[in-house]
Design brief:
- The structure is a single chain.
- The protein has helices at residues 27-34, 92-104, 114-121, 127-138, 142-152, 155-179, 190-208, 211-219, 233-241, 284-299, 315-325, 345-352, 366-376, 390-411, 416-434, 440-447, and strands at 5-8, 15-23, 35-37, 52-57, 63-72, 83-90, 108-109, 221-226, 259-265, 268-274, 302-308, 329-335, 355-357.
- It has 454 residues and is of the alpha/beta class.
- It has three domains: 5-110, 2-Layer Sandwich (Gyrase A, domain 2); 130-210 and 387-438, Four Helix Bundle (Hemerythrin (Met), subunit A) (Up-down Bundle); 226-376, P-loop containing nucleotide triphosphate hydrolases (Rossmann fold, 3-Layer(aba) Sandwich).
- The strands form two sheets. Strands 3-4-5-6-2-1-7 form a seven-stranded mixed beta sheet. A six-stranded mixed beta sheet has the order 9-10-8-11-12-13, sandwiched between helices.
- Strand 11 (302-308), helix 11 (315-325) and strand 12 form a beta-alpha-beta unit.
- Helix 6 packs antiparallel against helix 7 and helix 6 runs antiparallel to helix 15.
Length: 454
């Protein structure tokens, strides 16, 4: 990491402002070669973390823009190295010429995620915080951004680190007693070791238990619209989206395939799939559409069972209901409330729970439907307390299982050294979460998903 890297940190499209950033031992001299302060002072004489106005130069020394520059000396910078930023007008040509001038001054092109990777390797952040940077950039809702920002500040890291330190202290104390019998080191009793292991298990189980909700915050809620043909599923999708995404006709069976869209409901992101009407199909195309509908139902976290309130329930409705009730959560949507109702709403509520009358045609009941959906997935009171990353979740699960094995071994009468072998496995798994013990290929895979300028 001794070389100096540079990259455009903003989008490649035309914009009001574009930023080029540098990091490395020669970051200041490279920036000084392409930026000339209007004050006449050299850039290196400008106080740290102070914006200065000046000219941006190309490789030939020609002025190509006027902008701002700022220096961040090590170690108090994003990467822990000397860093600099040049803020130009957001012309892709200007930014590219500025970058080429920095290359001519000794910098090289940064690779994907290299700035954040250097921050991790230099101890400016752990691996949980580094992954939170990518999650913050990719956030699709305010809740997702809020949770990523809290994780960036160390909320999850503190929980993992506390367990790591407790388990490490337990193992260290045991081996210290064994290796230095003449020292006055009080060993843990079997009861104390069990209590500490159980405390750590409880903490990891609580953290792992947040992953289901956390993945919804980060990636959205997989939801599906289910119903027989012509109950208004596609009309409901269009109404929720606010524009005509799916084709709607009076002909039953218009939708032959699944149609997926994202819908934001009061801060909750739904990955909503409209499906072909479920019925006994007469042709192969519709038959495949029905199979895809049933597959989408099996994968969904939330099923919206759409019924036609203007007609009595049929055997096809019952078949759809069985598929919807198999989902982890479901809401019954009684569509066509603008027409005379011909179903027993009270009986439906007794069978299916929540029933929301709506009219996809005029929008009646949509607000109530949105409230009913978001009520099933309330936002956590403390941002950043949800585990949102599958890699981290897997490591936490392995650590928790290893600690359970250690606790079980002690309870079964095994010697502490045999039980602590499992505790050491837990320590290794926890090290994968925060980056204290993680393979190089895992680190490379993590940072490969970052953009080049981050």
């Amino acid at each position: 990491m001794s070389d100096t890297i540079a990259a455009i940190a903003t989008a490649s499209a035309v914009s009001a402002v574009g930023i080029v950033r540098l990091s490395g031992a020669e970051a200041f001299s490279a920036a000084e070669a392409v930026f000339r302060p209007k004050s006449g002072k050299p850039l290196s004489a400008i106080p740290a973390r102070t914006m200065v106005f000046g000219d941006v130069l190309d490789r030939a020394g020609r002025v190509i823009d006027q902008g701002l520059a700022v220096l961040f000396p090590a170690p108090n910078s994003y990467t822990g190295e000397d860093c600099a930023e040049l803020h130009c007008h957001g012309s892709p040509v200007v930014l590219d010429e500025c970058l080429r001038a920095l290359f001519a001054a000794g910098a090289r092109q940064a690779t994907a995620g290299e700035f954040t990777r250097r921050a991790f390797l230099n101890g400016r952040m752990d691996l949980v915080q580094a992954e939170a940077v990518a999650d913050l950039i990719d956030a699709l809702t305010p809740d997702a951004a809020c949770h990523a920002a809290a994780q960036l500040s160390g909320t999850i890291s503190r929980t993992v680190d506390a367990v790591y330190e407790d388990v490490l202290a337990l193992i260290s104390r045991f081996y210290a007693v064994v290796d230095y019998p003449d020292e006055d080191i009080t060993p843990h009793t079997r009861a104390e070791m069990t209590a500490l292991l159980e405390k750590s298990i409880d903490a990891l189980e609580a953290l792992g238990g947040t992953f289901s909700r956390g993945s919804i915050v980060r990636q959205g809620l997989p939801a599906v619209l289910l119903g027989k043909p012509n109950v208004g599923k596609s009309s409901l999708l269009n109404a929720l989206l606010g524009y005509d995404r799916a084709i709607v006709t009076a002909v039953a069976g218009t939708t032959r395939d699944t149609v997926a869209e994202t819908v934001r409901l009061n801060g909750l992101l739904l990955r909503l799939t409209d499906t072909a009407g479920i019925r006994t199909a007469d042709d192969e195309v519709e038959r495949q559409g029905v199979e895809r509908s049933l597959a989408a139902a099996r994968e969904a976290e939330l099923a919206l069972l759409v019924l036609d309130g203007s007609a009595p329930l049929t055997a096809e409705d019952e078949r759809v209901a069985a598929a919807a009730l198999a989902a982890p959560k479901h809401i019954t949507v009684l569509n066509k409330s603008d027409l005379p109702c011909r179903v027993d709403v009270a009986a439906l509520r007794e069978r299916f729970g929540t029933v929301i009358p709506v009219s996809a045609a005029n929008g009646d009941g949509l607000d109530e439907l949105c409230r009913a959906v978001t009520a099933l997935y309330p936002a956590p009171s403390a941002p950043g307390t949800l585990l949102t990353n599958a890699r981290q979740y897997g490591a936490v699960q392995r650590a928790c299982e290893a600690l359970k094995n250690a606790s079980g071994a002690l309870a079964g009468g095994m010697t502490p050294d045999a039980a602590l072998t499992d505790a050491e496995e837990a320590l290794s798994a926890l090290g994968e979460v925060n980056g204290r013990a993680v393979r190089e290929d895992v680190v490379s895979a993590i940072f490969s998903r970052f953009c080049v300028g981050k």
